[in-house]
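REQUEST ID: PR-0412
SUBMITTED BY: lab tech R.K.
PRIORITY: routine
TASK: structure prediction, single protein chain
INPUT:
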Amino acid sequence: MDGASTISTHLAARLRDLRTRAGMTLDGLAERTGVSRSMISLIERGESSPTAAVLDKLAAGLGVTLASLFAGQESAAASPLSRREDQPVWRDPESGYVRRNLSAPGFPSPVELVEVALPPGARVAYDTGRRAAAVHQQIWIIEGTITLSLGEETYSLGTGDCLSMRLDRPTAFRNPTDAPARYLVALATDPHAAHNLYR
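STATUS: complete
OUTPUT:
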């Protein structure tokens, strides 16, 4: 099984598991996220290659981060060490951006680390806005330049710059140059500061 098939199979099982543990039906998750029931069903069967924007909507509806969809289920027996060759890598079929989950899969931690490579001219937009749980994020540019729109604010970030933000508004990442950009994403979820969006 190739890498893409492995990730697709993992995403299918992980999404189904998270939805089931949340006590949600396909219709319930569809209503909460705006993603169609048929699309969710296809993803859960490993028959669709969802975009980053769709996965982010599903993650937000489940009260988790996008990164956690690629992680394993938390376990006290999970190793705290994540070797590079074992880190899940996924490519967004729409923009071509590549994300690598750096954190140890399944190891309980309040922080998740992700490395992203954004191709020249690429743009990735998340219109999810407010979430079921408060998610804090920091972006540190390893190399290159990106333009980051956070609601009505726009930031131009270059190598070495770091931006802190809360994921409660539509967000868009764009690489305005003809060279690839790489950045580190650090995320922390605060379930105690959850928004009562769905009650």
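NOTES: The longest helix spans residues 3-21.
REVIEWED BY: pending
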